Amino acid sequence: MNDNRKSFTLSPIGASAKWFFAVLTLLPILIVAFIWWGHPDEFSEMPLWLMGLLLGIGPAILIAAAMGVRNPQAKLGKDGLSIKVSFIDKQWAISTIDRANAALVNLESRQELRPKWKLWGAAMPGLSSGLFKLYDGRKAHVYITDRRKVVYLPTQSGPVLLSLERPREFLDTLQAL
Question: Does the reported pTM lie above 0.85?
C-alpha cells in the first residue's frame, strides 16, 4: 500500500484492560511467592535460572503485547485499509470493502455482530482484538474497546469491526474514496 493514506487512531484500551494486564502479569509471581513462603523446601533443588525463566516468560509476553496496543493505527486510502495493532498487521483492498453498507453500530443493541469466540488475538475486559467468531457465525477481524461506537465494515473475507477515535470522519473518508 502506498503513502497516500489517511491515518486514523484506534480507540485506546480502557482502564479495565490495563488492570487486567497488570494482574495477569503479576499473578504468576504472586503464586510462586505464596508457594515459596509456605513451602520453601519445594524450591531448594530448582535452579535459579529456571525460576527466572518461569517467572519471566509470561510477564514478558504480556508486557510486549501491552506495549504493542499502545499506538494502534488504521490507514485508509484509495488502495485500501490497513490495520496495525500489536502482532496484527492486516490489509484489505478497497475493492473488497462493501462501502455502501459500512456503518457506525452499537454492539449493545446489535448482538449478532458481537465477538463470541476468540480464534486468534486478545480478549479481555475493555479489549477485543484479533480474529473472532461473531454471534451470527461469521469470522471477523476486530479491534473493539468501546462497544457503543464501532465501525462495521463488510468485506469479501468477512466483517471488520473497529473502535476509532473519529468514527464519523473515517466513514466519510471511506465513502469519498
Answer: no
